[in-house]
Structure formats: C-alpha cells, structure tokens
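User: My instructor asked us to take a sequence, write out its structure as tokens, and then describe one feature of it. I'm not sure where to start. Here is the sequence I was given:
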Amino acid sequence: MLTRRHIRIKVLQTIYAFDKAEIDELKKSEKFLVYSMEQMRDLHLVMLSLLVYLRDYGADQLEKRKKKHLVTQEDLNPNTAFIDNKVLLLLKENTALNTLVTERKLDFWKLDDEYISLLYKELMAADFYQEYMDNASRDFKADKEFVIKLYKEIVAPNDKLYDYFEDKRLTWLDDYPVVNTGIVKLLNQMGPNPSDGKLTPPAFKNKEDLDFGVELFRKVVLHDEKYTKDIIGKTPNWDKDRIADLDMIMIKMGIAEFLHFPSIPVKVTINEYLEIAKEYSTPKSSIFINGILDKLVQQYRDDNSLNKIGRGLR
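Assistant: Let's start with the prediction itself. The structure tokens for your sequence are:
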C-alpha cells in the first residue's frame, strides 16, 4: 500500500518531530514512525467501511419509510438499486474487511453516524444518483462506475469528513489523498468475485519496505553531525540556520541513501526528494536541494564513498 515515496515522507515527518524534541528518544521515534506508516492502512479500512455504512444507512431509510403513518405505494415498493449495488454488497460481505475493522477497533461510523447521514443526503441530491436509480438495466460495470463516482464526487472531497479525520488522528491528514487515490484504483480493479486480500492489502508491499523506512531514519539521526558538515561544506554563502529545516532533513536523507543504500540509484534518490520538496517545502527548495545533492554526489564519487552496486546505479 505504501510507496517508497510515502515512506520517505513519513521518515521526513518523524525526523522533523525528533529534531524539534517532540519525540526525544530514538526508540520512541522509531515506534512512532512504524505506527504512522501502519496508520495509512487503518485509514484505508475506515474509508472502505464508510461505503458499507452508506449502503446500510440507505437500507435503514427504506425500512423507516415502510413504517410511516401514511404509507405510499412507493414506500412499500421502493427502488432498491442503491442497496442492491453489487460492489457495495461485495464490500459488506468481505470477511477480511469486517475482521480487520473489528480487530483494530476502527468501527468509527457506529458512533459518528452523523457523517454517514450527511454524505447520504448529499448523494441523494446528486444528479448521477438519480440517473443510476432510473437505469433499469444495471450490470456489474454500471454498479462499479456508480460507486467510483460516489467516492470521487461525494466522499473524497467532503470538507467535514476531512476535518473529522484531522481531529481523529493527525497522521491521517497526509495519508488522506493517497488513500483516496488508492481506493479509487482498487474500485476500478474490482471484479465480481474479488479475493479478500485485494480489498485489504498490507501496509507494506514487503518487509524490505518497512526495513527501508526504519533504517533510513536511523542513518540520518545517527550520522546527523557528519551529514551537516558535508552540507555546509557545499553551501559557502549559507550558514546552517539559514537553510530551511525541511530542506536540511531532505538533503540528509539523500546523503543517507547515497552512502548506505547500495541498490537505490542516485537519480532515483534525487528525483524523489525533488518531488517531495515541491509538495512540502518552499517554491525554490527543489532547485536548492538539487544543487546540493549534485555536489555531494560528485564529492562521494571522487573520494570513493558513494555506495552503489550494479551498473546504472551511480
């Protein structure tokens, strides 16, 4: 689920907190790093279960209509297209999703059902909802297209939902757009009989990705003084205090990858931190970071300390 870029961002955030003494012990910081990375999977599970709760809320509304004092024929024989949606039913019946939500105590929507009500009302007012309900010939493809539109146009951009997650778990703010993109991709790939694992992928593609994040954090923290000297030596017109904190950390992370991660090509490392800088630092940061990392690569090549194995990695 987590890409290497997202792991790098989590490491960046953890080092920043460590430097600012928000977490002042190495072991505690490592645990927080792993926790924050695993939280992304929890958010994924919460967002999938939200779709199930939306479907169930719709079913409850139909039942309430049947119990009205003055019941119409439409109340007694309602349009059930939404609650019969094949994709929503697959999510509802998914054993792995239900088990994980229960085990990890992620059943937020039972208590915070006002958000489900809010989203349902917004859905009912959407033009594409009525078009879907009026379509008599719905197949799996139509059901899937509807759920994707529901997620992209109603769920993902909802400001109140975003504020809710900000209050719930702070680490989810940066995860939110990544998780939303991942869920839309997952929905696009769904077939009529998806396996449990496809809906609930692990937080890490493999153990190497988890180890990469922890080891990258350790290298930067433990070699901080050396990396700082290397950086300042490449910025004769700048003192340490004039370099933005996040820029300094990203350059140090780049150095760690140059010196301690032999299988990661130099170009990949530089490109990754340039992209991260565009999103998390100042407008000119990527140019500054690119210049410093280029100089450092040349220095490490000259003194044979650049640790890369294999053709094309240097």
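For the description part of your assignment, you could build on this observation: The radius of gyration is 24 Å. Try explaining in your own words what that tells you about the chain.
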